[in-house]
Amino acid sequence: MLAIHCSLAHSGAWRGMGAALGDMATIHAFDLPCHGKSGDWDGQGVMHDTATAMALSVLEDIGAGPVDVMGHSFGATVALRLAIEQPDRVRSLVMYEPVYFAPVMADDPAFGPGYVRDTAPFDAALDAGDREGAARAFNMLWGNATDWSDIPKVTRDYMAARIHFIRDSSPFLIDDCANLLAPGRFEAAAMPALLLRGAGSPWAKPVSHAIARRLPDTTEISLEGVGHMGPITHPDVVAARVRSFLERV
User: Fold this and answer.
1) pLDDT recorded at residue 39
2) Is residue 165 part of a domain?
3) Is the pTM of this model over 0.90?
4) Are 227 and 233 in contact (CB under 8 A)?
5) What are the two backbone dihedrals, phi and then psi, of residue 60, each rounded to the nearest 5 degrees?
6) Does the residue 16 lie in any domain?
7) Is residue 36 domain-resident?
8) What does the mean pLDDT of the chain come to?
9) Which helix (H) or strand (E) segment is 212 a member of?
10) Residue 101 phi/psi, 5° resolution?
């Protein structure tokens, strides 16, 4: 199984899920650009293209034949893109709260203005050069309501140093620069797909619905008592659903 982590994390974020899945899956994880031990993105082209190329390279290293692919948040958008652009390489697709906003923005004109309103504190801080303030605002939206002061300083510094990654993701997540919403493209991802989300996560339900209705074979599951960081905070709960899905497919 290829596993792709969320923004501001690193490949080690899958340790809990790996332990919970046990001997059912061998997890191959890598660090996204600017994360973990990977180098900084050079700013050339589109960052999501670079992340997807890295994931495809790991798929090729794993070997020939289709592979189960799993992603969390931003990583789930890379997993989805692989499934659409490289369907022969993906046996099944697991996504936990993909932050691919373009489909729901296309479906619901009211979603975009609400998103802009809710992310205004993040944008204002980043525009002002306040990287820690931007990371704090981002954490308020996506960090399971964890108080910023309760996060270890080394983690806060790690997030602040990479906070530009969030804005660098926008050409794909919001503007659909890869043109995945073009007619017929989602249909290429005909493999079984599992869409998981935390019941209390902001935006998760409409985004999940917008993606699910475009994929040919998708199961949606909402997890009570779990937030956006479910694969890290509740790996046993998330892994149980993934295990059941893999047994079925």
Assistant:
1) 87
2) no
3) yes
4) yes
5) -65, -35
6) yes
7) yes
8) 94
9) helix 204-212
10) -85, -20
